[in-house]
What we know:
With about 120 residues, this protein is α+β, with helices and mostly antiparallel strands. The chain has 4 helices and 9 strands. The protein has a single domain, classed as CATH 2.40.50.100.
Amino acid sequence: MNFPAELKYTKDHEWIKVEGEEAFVGITAFAQRELGDIVYVDINTVGSEVNEGDVFGTIEAVKTVSDLFMPITGTVVEINDKLDANPELVNSDPYGDGWMVKIKFSGSADALLSVDDYKTLIGV
């Protein structure tokens, strides 16, 4: 499994890629593998401030629906529109075209897990 070292991770299996005052958020390769085939992503929080740890949407696989948790406090400025027609991008490219939201954050990513800490968490 691939876990990019430049990303930060959460215990809930989200990743965050910080770029200045904005960041991209998605789920990890581990999470998408555990969920199985993704069939729908439901995010309707554009323009909303979402606190760290709060739900910002849901992701639906063939057999389950899971909440998506915000890694740090921020305002959702963009949703990945590609996921409407192609939710399977989360399975095929979770760290690239399968990103979920772009946020303008007001918290800090310092408390999130490093790649090594995340690998330890999932036993890799």
